[in-house]
C-alpha cells in the first residue's frame, strides 16, 4: 500500500466513519475544544460535516469534494473543518439538523452546516455536488460565497445567527401546556389506528407507497391495539395489517434471502429493490416484532424469519467479547480486482451466475428442469435482470437480479410438476450454494463501533425471541451482550452509561481517549433490554441494574419544568439546545419507550413516583398524541399500557421444577402488552422480596407452583393450573 499524502487529526479517532476521512486533504478536526478554540482564536467560521458510515451520499461527497485537493485548500484556508459521526454524537446531529430542516424544508445526510465561531448555525444543506450544475450550486461556489460574506458583513451574519437560534429554541420546545393530565387513551389509540389504516397499502403492506421502511413501531402499535380489542372488527383489521406487512417484507428483496437479515429500506412499493445497508437497530426491533407475530399467530413462517435475523446478527454483527456492531455498508467491490464500489454488489445476481451454480437436473420434475430453473422462477430472476431502470438511477444494477419470493411454494412446485413437500429442500440447497459463492466476493465495509442504545435494542430482540420460540441459546446470547454492556459501556464509579466502544487491534475492545457519555436513548433502550432479559432469564441482577439506571436517567435528563426527558444532559456548553425528539421513526423516540419502562420499573420496585412520571411524559406530548399519533405510534401504544395498568403476573415456585416451568411456558406463550412477569422463588433475602414486601404473603398452594395476577399490588385468588392462567391472561 502506498503511503498516504495527507493525514489529519481524525487519524487518532476510533469511529470507523471518522477514520475513513483521516487521509483527506481537508484538515478535519473531531468535534471538541481544540477545534472551537482554533475558530475563536483565528476568528474563523466553522464548516461542520455530519454523516455515518453506511450513508451512500456521504461517500459520494467525500469522493467528489473532500478528496479534491483544490477544494480542500479552499476549506482549510477559510474554515475550521469539523467531521462528526452522527451515530457517536446524535446530540450534535440533532441540534444542527433541526436548523437545516427549519431553514431548507428538508434534511438528511451528509449534513453540511456553517457555524459562527461560537457554534451558531447560519447556513446549511445536505449533499452538494463539487461544481455548479444547471439546477444546483456547487460546493466550491458555496464555500467561496460564505467566506466572502464573513469578510464583508460579519456583524450582520452574527446578528442573524443569534435570531436563528432564538427561533429554533421557540419551535423545538416540547412541554406541558397548562393541563397536567395524560391524553385520553381510547381516543389516541382510535385516531392512531385510523391514521395508519388510511396510509396502509392493501396490496403490499406497509404505510407509504415508496420508499418503504420496516417501521417496527407501527407494527407493535397494531399488535397492542389488537390485544386490547381482540373481538372487534378494528382489532381484527389491526392484526391483519401487521401480519400482512410482515409477510410481504419477508418475501421481498428488502429481506436478504441468501445472507439473512434485513436491509434498511425499499426504494419501491413492493419491498423489492432495497438500499442495501444493514443496520443493527433494524435487526433488533424486527427480531422482536416477528417474535410477537409468531406468539400471536402460531405461524412457523414468522419463527423462521426470527431465526434468520438472529443467525445473521450472530454470524456477521457479533464481537467476540459479546457486543454487537452497528452496520454493514451497501456499497462494495463487485470483484477482488474492481476499482470502484457498487451499491448492492455483494447481494445481487445475474441469471447466468445462478444457472452456472445450480445446473443439476431435478429428479421427478418436468423433463429437463434444473435446480436453477426452479430457484429462478421462485425468486423472480430474469435473464435481463429484474430491477426496473426507475429503481436504478445510476445503472449500477443493470442486468442484475434482487431475489424476491414471487410465488407460493405450491405454485412453484406445480409449475415444475414437483411434490410441494420437496420444494423447501431444493430452495435451501440453492440458497446454500449461492451463499458459498457470495463468500468469495469482497465484503462490504463493516462499522465495528458498538453503541449502548443499539446493543440494547438487539438484546431485547434476542431475549424476546428466546421467550417466544422457547430457545435458551437466544437468552444466553442476550445475557452475554448485557454482561458486555456492563463491562465496556458502563462506568461503575459514576453509575453512568457510556455511548460507544470500538473493536481495536487483535480483537480487543477499545474506548476513545475522552469517552462519550450515554444519551437518553442509551439509558432507555438499555433499561428496556434489561427488563426484557429479566423476563426471559429471571435473573434478578438485571432488574437491580435496570432500576439503578432508571434513577440515573431521571437525574441526568428529566425536565422538571416542562416534563418529559431531554435527549442530552445539561452542562455541555458546546450544545446550543437541549431537545426532545417527538418522532417514532426507524427507532422509537426515547421518551416513548421511557413511558413503558417507568411503568415496568414501578411494578418491580413499588416506587409509585415512576407511574406519575410516566403520566407526565404523556402529558408533555399530549397535543401531538391527540392530533397526529401516527408520528408517535410507540407513545400512543404506551398511553394504553398506562391506562390499563400493568398486571403483575407472579409465579411462586422453584424455577428448576417442572410445574414452575409449565406455568412460565404458559405466560410466555401469550402476547399480552400489559403484563409484567416476576418469579417469587421464596428467597426473602433476594432483591425482589426486599423491593416488594407484598410478595411474602403469596404462597405456593399445596406445595405446587402457584400463579397470582396482581394489579397495583393487590392480587387475584391463587391459580395452580397453567390452562386456567392462560385463560386469565387472554381476556
From TrEMBL:
SUPFAM superfamilies: Six-hairpin glycosidases, Thioredoxin-like. It comes from the Eukaryota. It holds the Pfam family Thioredox_DsbH. One of its GO terms (biological process) is carbohydrate metabolic process. Residues 7-168 form the Spermatogenesis-associated protein 20-like TRX domain. This is SPT20 protein. It comes from Nycticryphes semicollaris. The gene is Spata20.
Amino acid at each position: 500500500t502506498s503511503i498516504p499524502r495527507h493525514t489529519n487529526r481524525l487519524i487518532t479517532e476510533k469511529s470507523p466513519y471518522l477514520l475513513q476521512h483521516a487521509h483527506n486533504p481537508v484538515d478535519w478536526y473531531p468535534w471538541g475544544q481544540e477545534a472551537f478554540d482554533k475558530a475563536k482564536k483565528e476568528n474563523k467560521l466553522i464548516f461542520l460535516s455530519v454523516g455515518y458510515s453506511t450513508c451512500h451520499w456521504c461517500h459520494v461527497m467525500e469522493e467528489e469534494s473532500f478528496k479534491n485537493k483544490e477544494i480542500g485548500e479552499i476549506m482549510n484556508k477559510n474554515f475550521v473543518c469539523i467531521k462528526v459521526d452522527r451515530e457517536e454524537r446524535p446530540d450534535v446531529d440533532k441540534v444542527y439538523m433541526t436548523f437545516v430542516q427549519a431553514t431548507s424544508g428538508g434534511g438528511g445526510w451528509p449534513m453540511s452546516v456553517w457555524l459562527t465561531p461560537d457554534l451558531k448555525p447560519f447556513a446549511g444543506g445536505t449533499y452538494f455536488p463539487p461544481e455548479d450544475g444547471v439546477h444546483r450550486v456547487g460546493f466550491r461556489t458555496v464555500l467561496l460565497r460564505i467566506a466572502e460574506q464573513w469578510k464583508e458583513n460579519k456583524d450582520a451574519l452574527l446578528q442573524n445567527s443569534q435570531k436563528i437560534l432564538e427561533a429554533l429554541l421557540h419551535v423545538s420546545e416540547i412541554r406541558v401546556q397548562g393541563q397536567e393530565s395524560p391524553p385520553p387513551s381510547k381516543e389516541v389509540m382510535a385516531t392512531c389506528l385510523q391514521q395508519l389504516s388510511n396510509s396502509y397499502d392493501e396490496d403490499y403492506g406497509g404505510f407509504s407507497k415508496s420508499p418503504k421502511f420496516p417501521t417496527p413501531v407501527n407494527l407493535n402499535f397494531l399488535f397492542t391495539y389488537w390485544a386490547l380489542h381482540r373481538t372487534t372488527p378494528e382489532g381484527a383489521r389491526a392484526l391483519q395489517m401487521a401480519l400482512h406487512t410482515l409477510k410481504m417484507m419477508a418475501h421481498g428483496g428488502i429481506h436478504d434471502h441468501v445472507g439473512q437479515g434485513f436491509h434498511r429500506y425499499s426504494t419501491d412499493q413492493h419491498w423489492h429493490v432495497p438500499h442495501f445497508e444493514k443496520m443493527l437497530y433494524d435487526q433488533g426491533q424486527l427480531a422482536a416484532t416477528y417474535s410477537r407475530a409468531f406468539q400471536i399467530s402460531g405461524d412457523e413462517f414468522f419463527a423462521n424469519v426470527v431465526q434468520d435475523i438472529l443467525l445473521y446478527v450472530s454470524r456477521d454483527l457479533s464481537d467476540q467479547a459479546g457486543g454487537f456492531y452497528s452496520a454493514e455498508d451497501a456499497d462494495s467491490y463487485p470483484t477482488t480486482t474492481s476499482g470502484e464500489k457498487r451499491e448492492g454488489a455483494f447481494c445481487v445476481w445475474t441469471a447466468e451466475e445462478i444457472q452456472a451454480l445450480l445446473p443439476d437436473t431435478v429428479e421427478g420434475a418436468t423433463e429437463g428442469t434444473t435446480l436453477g430453473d426452479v430457484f429462478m422462477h421462485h425468486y423472480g430472476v430474469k435473464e435481463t435482470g429484474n430491477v426496473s431502470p426507475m429503481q436504478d438511477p445510476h445503472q449500477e444494477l443493470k442486468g442484475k437480479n434482487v431475489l424476491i419470493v414471487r410465488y407460493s411454494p405450491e405454485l412453484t412446485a406445480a409449475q415444475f410438476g414437483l411434490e410441494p413437500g420437496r420444494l423447501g429442500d431444493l430452495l435451501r440447497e440453492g440458497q446454500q450454494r449461492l451463499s458459498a459463492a457470495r463468500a468469495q466476493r469482497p465484503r462490504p465495509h463493516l462499522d465495528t463501533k458498538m453503541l449502548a442504545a443499539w446493543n440494547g435494542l438487539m438484546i431485547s430482540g434476542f431475549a424476546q425471541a428466546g421467550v417466544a420460540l422457547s430457545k435458551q441459546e437466544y437468552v444466553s446470547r442476550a445475557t452475554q451482550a448485557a454482561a458486555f454492556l456492563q463491562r465496556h459501556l458502563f462506568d461503575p464509579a459514576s453509575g453512568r452509561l457510556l455511548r460507544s466502544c470500538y473493536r481495536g487491534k487483535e480483537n480487543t475492545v477499545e474506548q476513545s481517549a475522552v469517552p462519550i457519555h450515554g444519551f437518553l436513548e442509551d439509558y432507555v433502550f438499555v433499561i428496556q433490554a434489561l427488563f426484557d432479559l429479566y423476563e426471559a432469564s429471571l435473573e434478578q441482577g438485571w432488574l437491580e441494574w435496570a432500576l439503578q439506571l432508571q434513577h440515573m436517567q431521571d437525574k441526568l435528563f428529566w425536565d422538571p419544568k416542562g416534563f418529559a426527558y431531554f435527549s442530552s444532559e445539561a452542562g455541555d456548553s458546546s450544545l446550543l439546545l437541549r431537545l426532545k425528539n417527538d418522532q417514532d421513526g426507524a427507532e422509537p423516540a426515547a421518551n416513548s419507550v421511557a413511558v413503558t419502562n417507568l411503568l415496568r420499573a414501578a411494578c418491580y420496585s413499588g416506587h409509585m413516583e415512576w407511574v406519575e412520571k410516566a403520566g407526565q411524559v404523556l402529558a408533555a406530548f399530549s397535543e401531538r398524541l391527540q392530533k397526529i399519533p401516527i408520528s408517535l405510534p410507540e407513545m400512543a401504544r404506551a398511553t394504553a399500557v398506562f391506562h390499563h395498568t400493568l398486571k403483575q403476573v407472579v409465579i411462586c415456585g422453584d424455577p428448576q421444577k417442572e410445574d414452575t416451568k409449565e406455568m412460565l411456558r404458559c405466560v410466555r406463550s401469550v402476547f399480552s402488552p400489559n403484563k409484567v412477569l416476576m418469579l417469587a422463588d421464596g428467597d426473602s433475602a433476594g432483591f425482589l422480596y426486599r423491593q416488594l414486601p407484598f410478595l411474602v404473603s403469596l404462597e405456593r398452594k399445596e406445595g405446587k407452583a402457584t400463579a397470582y395476577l396482581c394489579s397495583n399490588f393487590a392480587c387475584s385468588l391463587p391459580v395452580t393450573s397453567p390452562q386456567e392462567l392462560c385463560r386469565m391472561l387472554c381476556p
